[in-house]
Amino acid sequence: VLEQAAARIDDMSGEQIRRILLHVVLLPYQADEFVEAAETEVHKRLSALDADAATASFGSLEELSQQTADAAVDIATSLSTSSSGESGDNPFKFLKKGGKGKGKDLAAEANRAAASACEAAARLDRIHRGAHLKGEEILHQIEQGAAFELGRCLTLLERYRRIEFADDSFSRQSRYD
């Protein structure tokens, strides 16, 4: 069972990984393959959370969503106006090479992207106005919860590493050794 869990560990939540590690440590059961996979996955997720924290200085989710919507609308407007006229100084001429995507197709794609960005911004605004919760606060709480679970996983991984398995027995080293 633990071999299957190790193979599917990237689909598990932090809480699921922690629960399995807890059983492995408390029973104790020698499951080196699962523990190695769990350790790799936990470190990968923690580094992803650290990378997200580094990019958090670019503004709140609401601000980024609104800036994206505004930029998408500006691009869609530019493409729509430039594809309607066949001027020689079309800045989007390089996108038409190779027979792929005519100007009107690009304008339609840009319009769809702008509509999606505007809908996302409007949805965040509705959540903020209706629930008096900011999307940024909700994401921050989720990130903190995930980091907490992953930290607990690291503690269990350390406890597993202190177990010495022998033939039919085991012994635990103290964390102070």
Q: What structural category arises from helix and sheet content? A: mainly alpha
The quaternary state of the protein chains shown equals: single chain
Please describe the biggest sheet, giving its number of strands, its sense, and whether it closes into a barrel. 2 strands, antiparallel
Alpha plus pi helix count = 6
Strand order of the largest sheet: 1-2
Alpha carbon gap, first and last residue: 32 Å
* Overall pLDDT metric: 81
The value of Rg in angstroms is 25 Å
Helical proportion, percent range: 55-70%
Q: H/E order of the elements?
A: HHHHHHEE
Beta strands, count: 2
User: What is the strand content?
Assistant: under 5%
pLDDT < 50 runs, ≥5 residues:
none
How would you describe the shape? elongated
3D structure, described in words:
The chain is mainly alpha-helical. Helices cover 69% and strands 3% of the residues. The chain has helices spanning 2-7, 14-26, 32-55, 61-84, 103-131, 135-161; strands spanning 163-165, 170-172. The protein has a two-stranded antiparallel sheet with strand order 1-2. The longest helix is centred in the middle third of the chain and has 29 residues, at 103-131. The two termini are 32 Å apart. The relative contact order is 0.14. The mean pLDDT is 81.
